[in-house]
């Protein structure tokens, strides 16, 4: 179990640095370029464990699977993650974006009812209300903060939730590591191609200042972070893996303080309590509705990094 907890801590730390590190180059690199590079690198890192899973479980990769993972990649990378990075770009505090985006698990539970026919009770509604209160508190709109980054973060959470729920269906046929690897590569590749077709000179944004954070986000946060998450799932339970996403929003305000030099306000910690309470209630209520998959990883995409 010690090894499991080490993976949980490692992954949570890496995921908690996503927004603050992304903020470091938000003014110099477009959100679409950051996202494309990040997921291409992350997909490459996951390629080796994905190939291992394919061989171990004798997974047959068909054109239908490729189309499904490509669709998931477009939804996640080109949709949710671009919106998230744009929110980071516009927000004065990456901690706000991280906390708002962390409610995607609750949105996933609500969306699971019409798509996966999972049952929702009053506790799920209470969880949703708590998380929404947390969003409004973290936004601190009365303090003059623009509503746009908060809206984009919420929209990113909703789109990612759709990806999570649809991803569950795909993961009944192939392991989640393979789904993530393929969707990362497809999504990142399509987004990068779109930039090139649009005439964006991607190379001009890569220099000695932007290369280190780009490599860190792609290799460490997206690649190694998801690899660590999958290790927790393979060695332990989905509940233990979900601990990563409860720890992440707790660590992010401190990561913002260290990396960006921004001291979190009282509203951030109040919002954190509300969002964590809502997420814990939702997770507890949904623990009995778990859907088994080929690799026992039905909850691999319940949350964002």
Highlighted features:
12 helices, about 300 residues, disordered C terminus, about 75% helix, globular, mainly alpha
User: Please, what is the average pLDDT?
Assistant: 83
Radius of gyration: 18 Å
Judged by helices, strands and strand pairing, the structural class is mainly alpha
Query: Which oligomeric state applies?
Result: single chain
Could you describe the largest sheet, including whether it forms a barrel? none
Number of strands: 0
Q: Give the helix proportion (percent range).
A: over 70%
Number of helices: 12
* Sequence of secondary-structure elements: HHHHHHHHHHHH
The 3D shape can be described as globular
Indicate the proportion of strand residues: under 5%
Terminal Cα span: 24 Å
Uncertain segments are 289-305
Short description:
With 305 residues, the protein is mainly α.
Chain-wise SSE layout:
Blueprint: H1 2-16, H2 18-24, H3 31-56, H4 63-90, H5 94-101, H6 104-116, H7 122-139, H8 148-170, H9 176-197, H10 211-235, H11 238-260, H12 266-286
What does this protein structure show overall?
By secondary structure, this protein is mainly α. The protein is 75% helix and 0% strand. It starts with a helix and ends in a 19-residue tail after the last helix. It has helices at 2-16, 18-24, 31-56, 63-90, 94-101, 104-116, 122-139, 148-170, 176-197, 211-235, 238-260, 266-286. The longest helix has 28 residues, at 63-90.
């Amino acid at each position: 179990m010690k090894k499991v907890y080490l993976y949980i801590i490692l992954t949570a730390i890496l995921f908690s640095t996503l927004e603050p590190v992304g903020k470091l180059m938000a003014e110099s690199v477009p959100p679409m370029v950051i996202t494309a590079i990040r997921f291409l690198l992350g997909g490459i890192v996951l390629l080796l464990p994905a190939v291992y899973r394919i061989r171990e479980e004798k997974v047959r990769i068909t054109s239908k699977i490729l189309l499904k993972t490509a669709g998931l990649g477009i939804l996640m990378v080109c949709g949710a993650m671009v919106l998230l990075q744009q929110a980071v770009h516009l927000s004065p505090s990456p901690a706000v974006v991280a906390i708002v985006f962390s409610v995607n698990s609750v949105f996933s539970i609500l969306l699971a009812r019409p798509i996966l026919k999972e049952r929702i009770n009053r506790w799920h509604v209470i969880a949703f209300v708590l998380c929404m209160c947390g969003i409004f508190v973290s936004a601190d709109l009365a303090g003059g903060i623009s509503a746009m980054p908060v809206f984009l973060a919420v929209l990113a959470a909703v789109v990612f939730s759709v990806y999570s729920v649809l991803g569950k269906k795909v993961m009944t046929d192939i392991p989640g590591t393979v789904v993530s690897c393929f969707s990362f590569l497809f999504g990142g590749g399509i987004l990068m191609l779109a930039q090139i077709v649009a005439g964006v000179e991607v190379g001009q944004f890569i220099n000695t200042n932007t290369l280190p954070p780009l490599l860190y986000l792609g290799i460490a946060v997206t690649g190694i972070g998801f690899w660590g998450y999958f290790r927790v799932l393979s060695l332990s339970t989905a509940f233990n893996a979900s601990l990563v996403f409860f720890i992440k929003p707790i660590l992010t305000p401190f990561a913002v303080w260290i990396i960006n030099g921004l001291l979190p306000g009282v509203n951030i910690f109040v919002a954190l309590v509300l969002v964590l309470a809502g997420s814990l209630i939702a997770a507890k209520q949904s623990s009995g509705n778990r859907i088994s998959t080929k690799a026992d990883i039905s909850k691999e995409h319940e949350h964002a990094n």
